[in-house]
Amino acid sequence: MLRQVVLVPVLPLTGAVILLLFGKRLARVAGYLATVLVAASFVVSLTILSGLAKLPGDQRLVVRHLFGWMAAGGFNVSVDFRIDPLSVMMILVVTGVGALIHWYAIGYMAHDEHKGRFFSYLNLFVFSMLLLVLAGNFLVMYAGWELVGLCSYLLISFYFTRPAAAAAGKKAFLVTRIGDLGMFIGLFAISHVFHSLDFGTVFGAAAQHPAPHFWATAIPLLLFAGAVGKSAQIPLYVWLPDAMEGPTPVSALIHAATMVTAGVYLVARAHVLFEPSHVAGAVVTGIGAATAVYAATMALTEDDIKRVLAYSTISQLGYMFIGVGLGVLYRSPEAYTTGLFHLVTHAFFKALLFLAAGSVIHAMHEITDMKQMGGLLKRLPITGVVFVIGGLALSGIPPFAGYFSKDAILGEAWIHGNYAAWGLGLLGALLTAFYVGRQIFLTFFGRSRVPPEIHPHESPPSMTIPLIALAGLATIGGFLGVGDKGSILNRWLEPVFPSPAVALAPKAGIGLTVLAVAAGLLGLAFAYTFYLAPGATERRQRITTPLAPVRELLKHKYYVDELYGAVIVAPALALANAAAAFDTHVIDGGVMGVGRLVGGGAAVFRRIQSGLVRRYVLTMFGGIVLVVGIFLIAGR
Question: What is the pTM of this model?
Fold first, then answer.
């Protein structure tokens, strides 16, 4: 069954090509074709899971060679697929959640005249992510990495006639390029130090003979620069909230199953290169912890239902980086697993939340402002219930999936003595529960603030069935982290992150779990007090009026976009305008000036060629007179 791995990315690629060429003719069936192909890819992924699970743990690594790509001297790169527990876990998430998002998109995009193009891009996005996670070397991974960036641009700016959507697509493309440049330099450094880009060769050499001290730190930090851009961490997170300009299924696919998780996967895949550097581990953990809290604060005052979830995604990615960062710092297999565990559970509940938000927006005729909602649970019962389930999972309330993975990350931070990461993670959990509660209460409970001309109604089955399926996964998905002899996921990933010879740290006690759950419940209680309980409006005004400057700061997202605009964008535009003026007036001016000079001279000489014999005779006579005159004057 492992030989069928090539079908996993080829199936969605086939759909992308067919719909790109014949999308208009196949518009009626475009969504069904794209969905079936991604679902088929998921089925093939299940067969690969079954085939790999039958192998002994130490043999669960198969490299499938496809073809040679490039060769220069002794340097060779081929297109190989690496099948191991980590890549299989990722392809199951990408294809499984991706298929549900495709299914939902059939109903969501039913009346869009460009369905063929949309589903072509969506299939291409899935293919790109599958290429990234299945790659057997850094160069093939980078190809998938850049294709994911291209697809994000195409999908975020899908409604390119809208200035905001076009600008958001360009912003995502350019901001992520900054991190990608660092990663690209990192690939050169890996090639320089290890003389190869193949995972097996590089990781084997790094495990036996770590890179020299400078490169041991430079390489992981350069790779992490790419992760910061793709996974929207401080300081390159600014593209992700604007990505909400794309259709809601795009938001779900980007935030849940594909692009933003690529950075976490990169750190986990290349952990052998990260572990020799304590600095790299501290940077990954520190940026993750800071982002988890920082992004959560920006969600507190956001009124756009999708943008709240966007800032939530940035924050939850921070938790994932805390997990894998702790793995780097302490070489802890359990810590790596917690970060990847949260990646899986987050895919379930965040896809659910985005798609449920899309159902709300669909019912509200594209209104996204939560201040114009309220009381929608009665009119959208299925959407409301599944949104509450997703919100509880995100808030870390048992028995939903987010509780298990978030608690595991906080527990790893505590048992390894990293109390700063634990404290920031706990604060982030409190803030998360508050903004999630605020979102639920403003949207589905309380009095209706829906404009009278709008009559919300439940979405069609093509949209609600995927919501119910994701709600089920968000409810039971956390049990992947449960087990008497280590969690299911931990045992599955053990060949990728082998346990050290030394004794492992003890597990976190029940008291820490109670504290984490209490933080989530407290956040929800605060949200109820300020947004739903009797007298909530007056109570909220008493609290927020003295804090008006803080609220204004959060409303403007700490003015980071304005700062980047003044410090980076404006000087870059000024330099570009100056270069354009220099090119126009100096470079082009000089070239055109020479052309005009030649043209002017040619015009003068052209008048001599009149074709009149009398003028030619007169000119010759004038020349003779001039020559004779010169001789006479010279003879004196």
Answer: 0.90
